[in-house]
Specification:
The protein is mainly beta and 229 residues long. The protein is built from one helix and 18 strands. The protein has one helix spanning 2-16; strands at 35-42, 46-49, 58-64, 74-81, 84-87, 90-92, 98-105, 111-117, 124-131, 135-140, 144-146, 156-161, 172-179, 183-185, 188-190, 196-202, 208-216, 219-228. Strand 8 and strand 9 (124-131) form a beta hairpin. The longest helix is centred in the first third of the chain and has 15 residues, at 2-16. It is rod-shaped, with a radius of gyration of 34 Å. The protein starts with a helix and ends with a strand.
């Protein structure tokens, strides 16, 4: 009987002051933070040569509902316009809530765009402008003179550029003989990081004027000249 009365008193005490009692091993569940939005840190609205990697990496930050950065959130990237690639295509946010990727533009026009998305979060869009080839020039080697049947002393260097004189790498340049015989090596080449190709011109056996024609995509033809002696 006495034991029963003590039990009743203890239960009444716990009911009166529940905040003073903590049972070992019992903790209040903590709700995990969830992603709320993605912000752009850097890499938006860049400009570069078409088909090339943009100079600045894309960095995004994932924020929780309380505005704090949140880690371990997968962010996936999708190309919306222009072609190209994003590397890596999916990456988890780090301790600062950030993801960092490289964006290589495609060859499908000047307007380039990608979207970044995370589970339960509205996607964000980033854009870039691709500069397309607009000019081709003979950087060196035009109007030389050499003995017939020999290579010109200075190799031909052809440069392809876009707006603001931006070099266009990856552009195919083709050169063909149009007068005097001879040969071009190589006849077709792809521009390097400086937007240039270098070729050797061996004159034909015909003395006097000799010529070659150069094209690069929609550019050209551009004529280069030499004289065989």
């Amino acid at each position: 009987m006495r034991q029963t009365r003590q039990s009743v008193l203890l239960l009444a005490l716990f009911a009166a002051v529940p905040t003073l009692v903590a049972f070992p091993g019992c903790t209040k569940p903590v709700e995990a933070p969830t992603a709320s939005r993605i912000t752009i840190v850097q890499g938006h609205q860049q400009t570069g040569a078409i088909g090339t990697m943009l100079p600045t990496s894309v960095i995004l930050r994932v924020l929780a509902t309380d505005g704090a950065p949140i880690a371990k959130i997968p962010v996936s990237f999708n190309v919306l316009a222009g072609g190209g690639t994003v590397d890596p295509g999916t990456v988890n946010s780090d301790a600062n809530g950030e993801v960092k990727v490289k964006w290589t533009m495609g060859n499908q026009g000047t307007v380039q765009a990608i979207a970044a998305a995370a589970p339960g979060v509205d996607p964000v869009t980033l854009s870039a402008t691709a500069i397309t080839p607009s000019e081709m020039v003979v950087a060196q080697g035009n109007n030389q003179t050499a003995k017939v049947g020999t290579a010109l002393p200075v190799q031909l260097v052809i440069r392809v550029t876009g707006g603001n004189n931006v070099p266009i790498p990856g552009q195919t340049v083709a050169i063909s003989i149009t007068g005097g015989g001879g040969s071009i090596t190589p006849q077709s080449s792809v521009t390097n990081a400086l937007g240039e190709v270098t070729v050797r011109w061996t004159l034909g056996l015909q003395p006097g004027p000799q010529s070659a024609s150069i094209t690069a995509g929609s550019l050209g033809p551009l004529t280069v000249n030499a004289t065989g002696s």
